[in-house]
Amino acid sequence: MSEIILTIEGVNPVDLFGEKNAKLNLLKQAFPDVTFTSRGHNLKISGQKKDTQKAKSKVEMMVKMLKQKHELTKHAIKDLLSGTNPMDTKLSSAGTDNVIVYGRGGKAIKAKTRNQKKMVDLSKKNDILFTIGPAGTGKTYTAVALAVKALKSRLVKKIILTRPAVEAGESLGFLPGDLKDKVDPYLRPLYDALDDMLPVEKLNYFMTNRVIEVAPLAFMRGRTLDNAFIILDEAQNCTTTQIKMFLTRLGPSAQCIITGDLSQVDLPGHQRSGLRRALDLLSDIDGVGKLFLTAEDVVRHRLVKEIIKKYSEDAELRKAARIAAKEEQE
């Protein structure tokens, strides 16, 4: 008989063995002549030497997968135990340099364009990053991926995702009781991104325990946001007062990405976007970065890029016509 005491380091034993040892039971089924006993971060493997060594090797591979992919599904374990190593095809293949984080089911969430790669680099160098670009350039999705990576790497303790709820009539001084019901549809893109990047059970746990918070911008008032990765999305629909309120919430260990599209301002009346003003005022501060994405960064349907170009050209023509008309009047 042989006995091996394996110390599990760098991962949560619950993530490795599953709730109520559901994943460990797959090992027990694969090695019926081996006894597995889990105690905290220690796993005792008992049986014939040849069997215990094989079992130890499989456990070590599971730990490696969990460390690199931040997720270990039952399907991946079954593949591993059947002789197919998911690491060979997904983690050791070429082209992983641009992977930001591994999402649900081991999906590689990558920076797909040159500017998205630049966004990843700038986020490492700046505590506040303004990312401006048209719809479909992946600015929100990439920002959420960076936030999830920071959380999984334990660089922050929580993620806060927020948007102004212009369509729902948001006001800093007045919060109607059913505001959440009104603004949830406008927060949907943030939920969708999270759904791609975290298993359902873990996402529900994080949301329930406020490790991940998705809320309208008005809910940030009066708070100090520390040890958090914060994303302010659709910032073009913030007033100057709202942007200032948001930025002055940041605590010492906070990181922030602000995304927006200055061609889609929905503020009522003739209010000027606070995002534009913030860019003018703050972009020369050390630790504040800015990045402009273009139609070339669009990662949606191939026609979206052409549609954005046409509308941009039309906007330029209209602007030129207004300037010409004004000059004629003078």
Looking at this protein, list some descriptive labels.
330 residues; alpha/beta; Ribosomal Protein S8, Chain: A, domain 1; Rossmann fold; six-stranded parallel sheet; three-stranded antiparallel sheet; 12 helices; 17% strand
What does this structure look like?
- The structure is a single chain.
- With 330 residues, this protein is of the alpha/beta class.
- It has three domains: 2-91, 2-Layer Sandwich (Ribosomal Protein S8, Chain: A, domain 1); 99-299, Rossmann fold (3-Layer(aba) Sandwich), CATH 3.40.50.300; 301-330.
- The chain has twelve helices and eleven strands.
- A six-stranded parallel β-sheet has the order 8-7-9-10-6-11, with helices on both faces. The chain has a three-stranded antiparallel β-sheet with strand order 1-3-2, covered by helices on one side. Strands 4-5 form a two-stranded antiparallel sheet.
- Helix 10 links the parallel strand 9 and strand 10 (255-260).
- Helix 7 (139-152) crosses helix 8 and helix 10 (240-247) crosses helix 11.
- The chain is elongated and about 100 Å long.
